[in-house]
Amino acid sequence: MLPVVAIVGNSGSGKTTIVEKLIVELKARGYRLAAVKHAGETIDLDPPGKDTWRFSQAGSPTTVISSPAKITIFKSIDHDPSLEETLMSIGEGYDLVLMEGFKKSKAPRIEVYRGTDAKGMACPESDLSAAISDSKLPIKIPQFRPSDIGGIADFIEKEIIGKAPSDIEVVVNGKKIFMKPFVKNIIGSSIIAMLSSLKTVGIIRSVIISIRNKE
Question: Where are the domains of the chain?
């Protein structure tokens, strides 16, 4: 799975601002980033009457708008996708995925908390990697001020990106297949060894192989 960190917190805590500033800071450090926003309610981004909406109504569960500047994918689903499903839709080629929300996921989470919030913290301390707050909190995990974007980025760099293990995922017919570490190591090392022998291949950061079985 791609290295990921979820910026969580109650509504109005400042999560979006933190993610926005972290994107600027980490991009300046040379990292390739993807950002994901988790919405608690269904948002209609494909209004009735649009071409893609018409394609969907005709029966295509996935429609795409491709232009010189952007590519937008609309995919119909019948459930709230898990973190793993969301990351699969992003693809590879990133050093880190910054996520806003997903407070119930198992991803490393950093909570943004305003000391004046009567609701208390959104997550228990045991579920968090760090906290960002404008006041000193009675917790033992690392804490940062909202203005200390450099310090937060340093923490993410060291504890999230730096400690992310090498991994391999196999997805068959849209379903992730469980493999023991030994099997993963055999498959991964074999593929990397073969690709490394090709003259046109440089430093290998990630590999995507898609196989379509005609049978």
Answer: 4-40+80-161, 166-215
Residues listed for the chain: 215
Distance, CA of 143 to chain centre? 22
**Residue pointed to by tokens 């926003």:** 37
What's the per-residue H, E or C state across 45-112?
CCCCCCHHHHHHHHCCCEEEEECCCCEEEEECCCCCCCHHHHHHHHCCCCCEEEEECCCCCCCCEEEE
Domain 4-40+80-161 homologous superfamily, CATH: P-loop containing nucleotide triphosphate hydrolases (3.40.50.300)
Q: What is the pTM of this model?
A: 0.75
pLDDT in tens, 32-51: 999 998 876 666 778 888 88
Q: Which one-letter DSSP state was computed for residue 134?
A: S
pLDDT tens-place string over residues 166-183: 778 788 887 778 888 888
